[in-house]
């Protein structure tokens, strides 16, 4: 199908990752007898904490119309007998690392795309391991044998087609989609299956009479651009299998860092909101310092109880990674934008990221000693790294059981599960 000199890209995707990892752990480490993958089951959040979303579902659950991303309430309405298990991101991170470790034994050029999928540049490995399909089958079988879960592997000459191929028939399959196979394998698919096309774009394409990827590929790019602007050109290229994006061993630097949290109760007073912003600033500042970068722009987002979302942003006087400064600016933005409505979600996001050490303008009227704040943050980071995240916390959080002192990202209840408190069948 391809010569030694041609590009060979794999896209490896774990089948129903969170559910598969949960099932494998229960079967092989907790003595469970019930394979969640064969039951009408799903991994879902806690409705009481407003994290009631289906994160992964089994094939039997899919037959009831249950889909990833819908609310737990809606899923239970479709199937009241649905077996729900809580998410355990600590376990999933370990499974992901084990999965990536195997991939890196076949090529050093492995790019994690998400926690459960990765791209591999397998160009030039034919003489080492065999044909692309032979290598893919070996990797698929080895992951199943050693780690206990299954993957789909898509093979092509670029990232786009490899990803499309991995999404063909599931689970536990290897598929190819080389340029000469596009007309037969990809063009008959509905346009919604093409990467980069969401519901809104699909609707616009349908109004244009475009329902399949093949119809999209054969539509003049100028017409698509007139309706969809720059995106029209992009999806035309994708429909024709054109993609020059390389597989990167090292991920690209973040253009921005952010944290948000869905709150388990409606926030209706400013002191509570400020405390939540402090928890978000604490986590965000830690991430910036760990990456050795600073932010020059800050945005605060609010989602009210009626799901209305709005933001406000500002350019900072000087780039910073200091927790205290991030919190003060966030509170200033919050005060300027909050209209008193009950709050469901708060978030802090940063942009215009620069490397630490860039020239920093001194503020003669700053109320705090900048150098002392930076040293304090560094000391706190060192203590938490050595003794754990809860080894030190700000006094404002002591005795407060409703608000965590480190907010954003993966919530505490999702990071680990006490299996002694739940029944493992």
Describe the structure.
The protein has 425 residues and is of the alpha+beta class. It has 16 helices and 12 strands. The chain has a 5-stranded mixed sheet with strand order 5-6-1-7-8. A 4-stranded antiparallel sheet has the order 9-12-10-11. It has a 3-stranded mixed sheet with strand order 3-2-4. Helix 4 packs antiparallel against helix 6, helix 11 crosses helix 12 and helix 13 crosses helix 14. The longest helix is centred in the middle third of the chain and has 21 residues. It starts with 8 loop residues before the first strand and ends in a 10-residue tail after the last helix. The relative contact order is 0.11.
Please tally the β strands and state the result.
12
**Level of helix content?**
25-40%
Structural class: alpha+beta
Question: Mind describing the biggest β-sheet?
Answer: 5 strands, mixed
Overall 3D geometry?
globular
- End-to-end Cα distance, whole Å, is 46 Å
> Widest sheet: strand order?
5-6-1-7-8
Return Rg in Å: 24 Å
Stretches with pLDDT under 50, minimum 5 residues? none
Strand content: 15-25%
Order of helices and strands: EHEEHHEHEEHHEHEHHHHHEHEEHEHH
Q: What value does the average pLDDT take?
A: 89
Counting DSSP H or I runs of 4 or more residues, the number of helices is 16
